[in-house]
Amino acid sequence: MDAKSVDPGLCGIGEAASRAGVSERALRYYQELGLLTPCARTPGGMRRYSEADLARVARIRELQSLLGLNLDEIAVVLRSDDRMSEIKAAFHDTGTGADERSALVSESLELQEHLVQVVRAKKSALEDFLSDLEARIARIKELAGK
Amino acid sequence: MDAKSVDPGLCGIGEAASRAGVSERALRYYQELGLLTPCARTPGGMRRYSEADLARVARIRELQSLLGLNLDEIAVVLRSDDRMSEIKAAFHDTGTGADERSALVSESLELQEHLVQVVRAKKSALEDFLSDLEARIARIKELAGK
DNA sequence: TCGCACCTTGACGTCAACGTCAGACAAGGC
DNA sequence: GCCTTGTCTGACGTTGACGTCAAGGTGCGA
Fold it and tell me: CA distances (Å), A47 to each of A14, A59, A78, A85, in order?
C-alpha cells in the first residue's frame, strides 16, 4: 500500500457541502437522521464523501424542494432505494430466499408507484395553476391596452 | 332591513376553517401577516368569511404546497393580485392617473410572468423526476422477472 | 515538529408556521 | 335572563430543519 491512504475521489465535509450546495451542518444532520452516511472515515474519524454520496444529497434536496417531502418521508424513499440496490447486488446470491426477495421487490415497486402517483398529481395541479396564471396574464395585457 | 343582520353566505371562523381545510389558528395567523382579512366582522367583533375569502385561503395553500413559497412570498403575490383587481375596478375612474395605473399594471405583469417562469421550471424539473422514476420502475419490474 | 486550516462532537439558538391554553366576550335558542 | 356553543385576544409552547457557538482533535505542507 504505497498509494495515498486517502482514496482519490473522496472529499471532506467542507468540499462535499459546497459541491452539494448545502451546509456542513445539513450533512451532519442528514447523517443523524440516517439519510446519508458518508462512505468512509479517515483513521482519525473525519468524514469522507464519495460522488455517490453527493448524488444522494442531490436526491434529498430534490425530494425536499420538488415534492415537498419532509426528511422522515425522504428516509422512507431512500431506504427503499437502498433495499433495491441491495437486492440487485445480491441478485444471483442464493443466500437470500427467493420469496423474501420478491416480497422486497414488490414492496419497493409499490412505494415507487405511489411516488409516481404523487408526482403525477403534483404535475397536473401545476399545469392547472400554470394555465390559470397565463389566463391572468392575458387579462392583464388586455387591460394594459393593446 | 328586515333581513337577518348576518349576511347569508358569510360564515364564522369555525366553518371557514373546516371548509378550507385549515385550522382556525392558521386563519388568524394569515390575518396577522396581512394575507387574509375576513370581509366583515359582527358588531360584537367576530370574524365573518365570504366565499371569496375561502378562495383566497385555497390560493394561499396552493402557493404553499405547489410552489413551496413561504407566507412572506405569498403576501407579495397576493398584494399584486389585489392591486390588479383594484385597478380593474377603478378602470374607468379618472381619479387614478393613467401613468400611475400603467406603472402598476406593468409591475404586476412582471411579477406574474416571473411566477410563470418559476412554475415552468418546477414543471420541467418534475417531468425529469417523473421519467427518472418511471425508468426506475421499469428496472424493478425487469428485476422482478417477467 | 510546528503551524494552521479543516474537522470532530455536543449543546444551545433560531425561524417559520402554526398548536395550545387561559380568561373573557358574543350569539342565539329556550 | 340563562345556558351552551362559538369566538375573541394575548401569550407561551412545539416541531422541523437546520445555524451557531465552544472546546478540542486531525492532516499535512513548510
Answer: 10, 20, 20, 23
Domain ranges of chain B: 6-65, 70-146
Q: Pick the residue from chain A with its C-alpha nearest to B117.
A: A130
Contacts of A116 in chain B (CB under 8 A): 130, 133-134, 137
A114 vs B: CB within 8 A: no
Look at residue A9 in the predicted model and tell me its pLDDT: 87
CATH of B6-65, one of 1.10.1660.10, 3.30.2350.20, 3.30.70.330, 1.20.120.350: 1.10.1660.10
Q: Number of residue pairs across A and B with CB atoms under 8 Å?
A: 87
Write the pLDDT tens digit of every residue in B44-97: 999 999 999 999 999 999 999 999 999 999 999 999 999 888 888 776 666 667
Q: How distant is the alpha carbon of residue A67 from its chain centre?
A: 11
Is A140's Cβ below 8 Å from some Cβ in B?
yes
- Which of B77, B72, B140, B68 minimizes the C-alpha distance to A62? B68
Q: In terms of CATH architecture, what is A1-65?
A: Orthogonal Bundle (1.10)
Calculate the average pLDDT of chain A: 89
CA A72 to chain centre: 12
> A127, B130: Cβ pair inside 8 Å?
no
